[in-house]
Write a structure and sequence with these properties.
With 216 residues, this protein is mainly α. Helix content is 77%, strand content 2%. It has two domains: 84 residues, Arc Repressor Mutant, subunit A, CATH 1.10.10; 125 residues, no CATH class.
Length: 216
């Protein structure tokens, strides 16, 4: 019995060494995953969807593309990571679906449109399904559509208001994406800040109109 205990004692240094080696490996993997993910976001923001690919991400992150597939499963995994982290649309965090008051709807919508115009990453994610049609972009559209629909929700029971509102938000998104490469749409100057103020006011007046109509 004594000999067995002595044998176990000799194993203790080996076990401790193995445990110490495993901890840095886990930390290294976490750091590498974060570097890959950050490279993905940076490329998307800098070059848009057409500039994002596994090879480009691997080069930016300084890793092999095989490692990206091993850690994330490819582009789809990176997009899912984006969804989980909530890096797409920050206004979602503040959205309260239980508050349907007119002023709250106007405020949260103004907050959402402001972020839409300032958040380049959100713009590129919205643009992506418009220029590519594959399994990844279809999944991306489902996600972004649900997120945008959550922020820009008016009244589930008021179909005319919802349709009018969605038409306006769809137009707002289109103009936002268009303004990156084009200065104007017909006679509307998309580079003039006053134009966007007018768009926001039109949305606010639409909410006012339908709320007033409901009371009549």
């Amino acid at each position: 019995m004594k000999k067995e205990w002595v044998s176990y004692l000799f194993l203790i240094p080996y076990i401790c060494e193995q445990l110490n080696q495993q901890q840095p490996v886990k930390k290294d993997r976490n750091a590498t995953e974060e570097r890959i993910y950050t490279s993905f976001l940076d490329l998307l923001e800098e070059k848009g969807p057409q500039g994002v690919g596994i090879n480009a991400i691997a080069k930016r992150a300084g890793v092999s593309k095989e490692l990206i597939y091993r850690y994330f499963g490819g582009m789809k995994g990176l997009l899912l990571q984006l969804a989980k982290k909530g890096d797409f649309f920050k206004s979602i965090v503040d959205y309260d679906s239980n508050d349907t008051s007119k002023e709250y709807l106007k405020n949260i919508t103004a907050q959402g449109t402001k972020e839409l115009r300032e958040n380049v990453l959100a713009q590129e994610l919205l643009r992506w399904p418009l220029i590519e049609n594959n399994e990844n972009t279809k999944e991306l559209f489902k996600f972004t559509n649900a997120q945008v629909g959550g922020v820009f929700q008016v009244d589930k029971n008021n179909k005319p208001l919802n349709h009018a509102f969605q038409l306006m938000i769809g137009g707002y998104i289109y103009f936002t994406l268009l303004s990156k490469f084009n200065k104007s749409f017909i006679s509307t100057d998309l580079h003039d800040e006053k134009t966007w103020e007018n768009f926001d006011e039109a949305i606010a007046q639409t909410i006012d109109f339908y709320h007033k109509k409901e009371k009549e």
